[in-house]
Write a structure and sequence with these properties.
Layout: E1 2-6, H1 12-15, E2 16-20, E3 30-39, H2 42-49, E4 65-73, E5 85-90, E6 100-110, H3 117-121, H4 125-137, E7 145-148, H5 154-165, E8 169-174, H6 177-186, E9 190-193, H7 199-206, E10 212-217, H8 222-227, E11 231-239, H9 252-258, E12 261-264, H10 268-273, H11 275-290, E13 298-302, H12 307-316, E14 322-326
Parallel strand pairs: 7-8, 7-10, 8-9, 10-11, 11-12, 13-14
Antiparallel strand pairs: 1-2, 3-4, 3-6, 3-14, 4-5, 5-6
Helix pairs in contact: 4-5, 4-11
Domain Enoyl reductase (ER): 7-325
Protein name: NADPH:quinone oxidoreductase family protein
GO molecular function: oxidoreductase activity; zinc ion binding
Length: 327
C-alpha cells in the first residue's frame, strides 16, 4: 500500500514521504481498515515536529483519526465485522494518512449515515473534545455566552456548532475576513477579527460588562492571558491546547479574586479511564448529526499525493475547517 511516512522530525512538508509499504495486519483487539478519509489535526503537525506529548517511534504514519471500511479483524474482535463503516482513532505507527490503517476496537465507532466519509472522520477528535469540554469539564447552559478562540479551525468550528446546539450565544474569534465569514456560516452570533478588534472589549460590550461564561481556548499564550480579562464571575476558561506555540502560566491570585475556574481537558484520557463515557459522547454526537445540528466543516478534500502540502497549510495556520485525505 501507499502511505505517508515520517522518518525524521521537522515541518510536515519536509519530513512526510509518500512510500510503498506492506499492508498492516491486525493484532488482538485490532482492525485493519481501508482508509476512506482522514482529517489532519494539529497533533499530527506536532508529532511530525517531535513536539507532541505522544512521541511515536520513527518511522510512523501520521493521521490520528479516520473513517474506514473494515477489511480484517484481529483475534477476540466480535463487535465489528468486515465491511463495517467505522470512525475513530488510528493505532500508530499505522495512522490514517495511508491507503490502509490499524484501529483498536475500543476506540472504533459506527460512522453515522448522515455524514459523508470526510465529515464522519472529523466527528471524532474535534467534536468529542468539544462535547467533553462543554458538557463534562464545564456545564454550558442555554442562554450563556461561549467565547471560542480559533473559531474557524477544526476544533473551534466544532465548538461553535456544539455551543449553538446547547442553546448558548457564541462569540467566535478568528484571524482575517475569510475566517470571519466561515465562523458566521457556522452559526456564531458575533464574530471578532482579532486583527481588527480587541476581543476583550467586544465580549464586554456584548455581555453588558459581565464577560463570557465559558471560554474555549485551543490557542494559549497571550490569548489565554487576554481571556482572563473578559471571563465572567464564576465562569470557566477551558484549556484545550497551545496552537499559538506558547504555554502560559496561570495567575492564580487573579482566578481567586474574580472567582473563575481554569479547567484543563485532555480528552484522550477518557478513552483509557472511562470508555463508557466516550460511547455516550459518540451517541450524543450522532443524535445531533441526525438532527442536522452539527456537521463537520471539511474545506479541503485531498487525494493521497496532495496531503503533505495540506498538512503544512494547517501547520502554517492558513486553513479553515478541516483539511482531509479523501480516498
Amino acid at each position: 500500500m501507499k502511505a505517508w511516512r515520517v522518518s525524521r522530525l521537522g515541518e510536515p512538508a519536509a519530513v512526510m514521504e509518500l512510500v510503498e509499504v506492506e499492508d498492516p495486519r491486525p493484532g488482538p483487539g485490532q482492525l485493519t481498515v481501508r482508509v476512506l478519509a482522514s482529517p489532519a489535526n494539529f497533533p499530527d503537525v506536532l508529532m511530525c515536529r517531535g513536539e507532541y506529548q505522544v512521541k511515536p517511534e520513527l518511522p510512523f504514519h501520521p493521521g490520528i483519526e479516520l473513517c474506514g471500511e473494515v477489511l480484517a479483524v484481529g483475534a477476540g474482535v466480535t463487535e465489528r465485522r468486515v465491511g463495517d463503516r467505522v470512525l475513530g482513532a488510528s493505532v500508530l505507527p499505522y495512522g490514517g494518512f495511508a491507503e490502509q490503517a490499524l484501529m483498536e476496537v475500543g476506540t472504533t465507532f459506527a460512522a453515522p449515515p448522515e455524514l459523508d466519509d470526510a465529515e464522519a472522520a472529523a466527528l471524532y477528535v474535534g467534536y468529542q473534545t468539544g462535547w467533553f469540554g462543554l458538557h463534562r469539564r464545564t456545564s454550558l447552559q442555554p442562554g450563556q455566552t461561549l467565547l471560542v478562540h480559533a473559531a474557524a479551525g477544526g476544533v473551534g468550528s466544532a465548538a461553535i456548532q456544539l455551543g449553538k446546539a446547547a442553546g448558548a450565544r457564541v462569540i467566535g474569534v478568528v484571524g482575517g475576513p475569510e475566517k470571519a465569514e466561515v465562523a458566521r456560516a457556522l452559526g456564531a452570533d458575533v464574530v471578532v477579527d482579532r486583527h481588527q478588534q480587541d476581543f476583550v472589549e467586544v465580549v464586554k460590550a456584548e455581555t453588558g460588562g459581565r464577560g463570557a461564561d465559558v471560554i474555549y481556548d485551543p490557542v494559549g499564550g497571550e490569548t489565554y492571558a487576554r481571556s482572563t480579562k473578559c471571563i465572567a464571575f464564576e465562569g470557566s476558561i477551558l484549556v484545550i491546547g497551545f496552537a499559538g506555540g506558547a504555554i502560559q502560566t496561570a495567575a492564580l491570585n487573579h482566578a481567586l479574586v474574580k472567582n473563575y475556574s481554569i479547567v484543563g481537558l485532555h480528552w484522550g484520557l477518557y478513552t483509557q479511564r472511562d470508555p463508557r463515557l466516550v460511547q455516550e459522547c459518540h451517541d450524543a454526537l450522532c443524535d445531533l448529526a441526525a438532527r442536522g445540528l452539527i456537521k463537520p466543516l471539511v474545506s479541503e478534500r485531498l487525494a493521497l499525493p496532495d496531503l503533505a502540502a495540506g498538512v503544512q497549510r494547517l501547520a502554517d495556520g492558513v486553513t479553515v475547517g478541516r483539511v482531509a485525505l479523501q480516498a
